Amino acid sequence: xxxxxxxxxxxxxxxxxxxxxxxxxxxxxxxxxxxxxxxxxxxxxxxxxxxxxxxxxxxxxxxxxxxxxxxxxxxxxxxxxxxxxxxxxxxxxxxxxxxx
Length: 100
What we know:
Blueprint: E1 2-4, E2 13-16, E3 20-23, H1 31-41, H2 54-58, H3 62-80
Antiparallel strand pairs: 1-2, 2-3
């Protein structure tokens, strides 16, 4: 199931079954990680429609990092929550006469 899309990526986020989520973005990024990325890999930030400049990356407010950290926590909690389980397939004894 598609969860998110953007102009730059048709499948920005998707889910398969209950415990598989694919993300084409980085919820684990912190201000420290972003600063380190710019400091150590800034020369790899080539101008493009979907590439942020070093300045744009460094100007992200702390509130944005707190928000994405909270979202990452929610995603991980959802993935490991044992109270919600996939619907079990019926055993052959439970199938109506004639099969599925």
